[in-house]
Amino acid sequence: MNERLTRRSVLHTTGMLFAASIIPRANSAPKSATYLMYVGTYTGPNSKGIYAFRFDPKSGKTESIGLAGEVVNPSFVALHPNGQLLYAVSELGNDGKTNGAVTAFAIDRKTGMLTKLNSVSSGGGGSCHLVVDHTGKMLIVANYGSGSVASFPVGADGRIGELKSLMKHTGSGPDRARQRGPHTHGAFVSPDNRFVVIPDLGLDQIWVYKIDPATAQLTENDPPFVSVKPGSGPRHFTFSPNGKFAYVVQEMGSMVTAFSYNAAKGTLIELQQTSTLPADFKGQDNSAEIGIDPKGRFLYASNRGHDSIAEFAIDPKKGTLRLVEITLTQGKIPRNFKLDPTGRYLFAANQKSNNIVVFHVDPKSGKMTPAHQVLDAPAPVCIEFLPA
Question: DSSP 3-state assignment of 174?
Fold first, then answer.
């Protein structure tokens, strides 16, 4: 594998103004009586875009609102920290030859409906993930098809500005079928808002960039990346609530790798690798999503193929994982899941069975049990909660 990569940065200017202070994320504090739940989908015969639900954590009931906003292939959505805006990628051009798009929406908090503000090119093909920094000034997009990372300023009115930085990865991995080139698969901002972490499935590397919300520019960290097991394909990433540890789920390897995280330097040191599958499983699997409960005690990772979610207990001092249980999601291809803001429920988005299955989460053991609630959702691939 060629580990020496080249990048280019495409810079533009913009005259947009921003607020200076960091805004607490609206979807991070579990104090709301009810929540809006937005679901990104793959559009087609049964889907037209982003769907909305209303969730009451006290009763556990979830009610469908319906289609909230039309957009092509919104395979991932992200909320602005002010709770008034939602951003969605349009996953197009996974061949790397055409560009995807990014769209900004205003949220009606009463009805859950979305109003389109503007849409811009994502700067690359196969746009699959995005994140808004904690100040709400900067939007970062992972372009899977072209193996690049793009950044954009966010205006005071929520609109997306002109492309500010485009960081292009090069190289390949050992799996010639799936790693012929770079495939950036996600963007995850550090708790202190100084760095963004970019797992690259095609290169078996986890990149770290410094972010500057005032200019919306990206610059490489030093060192720029950490490598993981060859052929494992890192996909999604999460930080522990205390910021001391971090975890990546590897799609091709069906495993989770734990790291210690140096917040001052933005660096990762590997601690452990552990499988997300039962020891006797012999079929084909591609792990997909990863998440941690709000108190940082349990970690969850989804399996597409075994169609399950693995539950791990986190050692609070070491950051290492211990498998608790593996629970079937009662559907096909759980591409995504989301713990609700209270941590008492887990919503498993089964892409191929067109449903979201709700589970109770035991606060002491972290184990999941069915909540006997199945939501109809066409090709669901992303879930986000917003206090209503």
Answer: coil
Residue 96 has pLDDT above 90, yes or no: no
Q: What Å distances lie between residue 96 and 91, 123, 169, 183, 195, CA to CA?
A: 11, 11, 13, 10, 26
pLDDT tens per residue across span 368-378: 999 999 999 99
Prior bond of 363 cis (ω within 30°): no
E strands within 91-204?
A: 101-107, 114-121, 127-132, 138-143, 148-153, 165-168, 188-189, 195-200
Residue among 363, 388, 7, 339 nearest 168 (CA): 7
Q: Quick check: 331 pLDDT over 70?
A: yes
> What is the distance of C-alpha 171 from the center of its chain?
24
pTM reported for the whole predicted model: 0.92
What does the alpha-carbon distance between residue 135 and residue 192 come to, in Å, rounded to a whole number?
11
Q: What are phi and psi of 211, to 5 degrees?
A: -120, 145
Work out the percent of the chain whose per-residue pLDDT is above 90. Answer: 90
Give the amino acid at 229.
K
User: Rounded to an integer, what distance in angstroms lies between the CA atom of residue 386 and that of residue 375?
Assistant: 18
The Cα–Cα gap between 42 and 349 comes to: 12
For the record, the structure tokens of 98 come out as 């055409």
Architecture of domain 36-387 in CATH? 7 Propeller (2.130)
